[in-house]
Specification:
The protein is α/β, with parallel strands linked by helices. The chain is built from 9 helices and 8 strands. Bound molecules: 2'-deoxycytidine-5'-monophosphate. The site of 2'-deoxycytidine-5'-monophosphate (DC) has 14 residues, from α2, α4 and α8.
Length: about 230
């Protein structure tokens, strides 16, 4: 019997804003010694760079031209991100970056460009990739897919906490902003946020980060033992 290894796996983790994907995905990758790729930070960095260049984020012609000249560097180990040599690692965490990313991510030209970058980064496996469409579009054949969800109230609380930790106490409207992001993510015509049919849904409303990570690791381990995944 061949040994079942975790190396080489593609693990997709999707879900809405504020659900805790980033923390969970980073911890899972660390535990399993896999590369961690945060695709949200790519939409965020590209949106900031396009905005810095004075672009209208809904002008498809301008975005097409922009994407054709963009060199996006994402360092999977450190999470550092550069657009045309300029670093956006700190900038991507801001509320403004989230808002701009939510707009630019509705544009097909941008999605096509970034999905290609993400496939290149994940090619060869050994990766935990986090986003909205990883299990449905970027890697529909991922070895294992998780979809994290939680109530609107708890996601608002987590996002508020995150923004406060980043030194920017969130305004009271953080809840309505999450609602607006959910609407954009779910209603956009291209790759809307939805759970892949073969994803494992984890409701994180009532459980903490460690428990979510534990649930994910147990499921991966069970599948490896059964020989469903792994080489
Ligand atoms: O996960 P996040 O909050 O960093 O994502 C920022 C925005 O980017 C969010 O509004 C949705 C979008 N996004 C996306 O459309 N597809 C992805 N794979 C990742 C993020």
């Amino acid at each position: 019997m061949r040994s079942k290894k975790v190396g080489g796996l593609v693990i997709a983790i999707d879900g809405p804003s504020g659900v805790g994907k980033t923390t969970v995905s980073g911890l899972v990758a660390k535990k399993l010694h896999l590369k961690y790729i945060n695709t949200g930070s790519m939409y965020r960095a590209l949106a900031l760079a396009a905005s810095d260049a004075g672009l209208d984020l809904e002008d498809d012609e301008a975005l097409k031209e922009f994407c054709s000249t963009v060199n996006l560097d994402y360092e999977a180990g450190s999470g550092r991100i550069f657009v045309n040599g300029r670093e956006y690692t700190d900038g991507v965490r801001s509320q403004k970056a989230g808002e701009l990313a939510s707009i630019i991510s509705t544009r097909k030209i941008v999605r096509d460009f970034l999905v290609e970058c993400q496939r290149t980064l994940g090619d060869g496996g050994s990766v935990v990739m986090e986003g909205r469409d990883i299990g449905t579009v970027v890697f529909p054949n991922a070895d294992i897919k998780f979809f994290l969800d939680a109530s609107h109230e708890i996601r608002t609380r987590r996002r508020h906490h995150e923004l406060a930790e980043a030194g920017k106490p969130a305004p009271a409207e953080v809840g309505s902003e999450i609602k607006e992001r959910d609407r954009r993510d779910m209603e956009r015509s291209i790759s809307p946020l939805k759970m892949a049919g073969d994803a494992i849904r984890i409701d994180t409303t009532e459980i903490g980060i460690e428990e979510v990570v534990e649930t994910i690791l147990k499921e991966i381990d069970a599948r490896l033992k059964r020989g469903d995944i792994g080489s």
